[in-house]
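Local shape tokens

___
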Amino acid sequence: MVLRGLENVLREADEYFMGTSRIQKTARELAARLRAANVDFAIAGALALNVHGVVRMTEDVDVLITRDGLRRFKDTWLGRGYVEIRPGGKPIRNTETLVKIDFLVTGDYPGDGLPKPVSFPVPAAAAVETDDYPVLSLPRLVELKLASGMTAKDRLRDLDDVMRLVRSRHLPRELQDELDPYVREKFLELWQLAVAPEPEY
């Protein structure tokens, strides 16, 4: 039983790194349906991180969307391959792949959800196109991850993601100029840690 479980985990990991997992399938199907409905959106979270050069597995799909776009999507697709995880809530689940979809709504706040200078932006102003779907631009992804990790104790991985982006993309210190002042000090702190030479033992 344990061996079968491990085999499933390894298979899913292999599919994920090949871009053929149920996570990516869910994101591509969702993107096609949102585009068909002329709903602006941007893929966020780990899938956006992957596009920008840091590959990290995830169990769900994060999507930036406006409140009106979310309403229109739910009006059309709930009961047709998607169900709400809780009545009236933002998260839904793809009934075929069983993957959870978290909607990040324009105007809401990352991290602890409390008001702060950084909020989820309008998708059209924060996205870059890829072959599969629009994703958050690098500055907006970094900005939101910083605001999230700074304010939610259970989101420290977001700060690690920023450090990994700095290393893998060789992000310049000057990226701070494209970020909201609220997160610039934290970006510089993480940037200095990320570019520091490895200690010699």
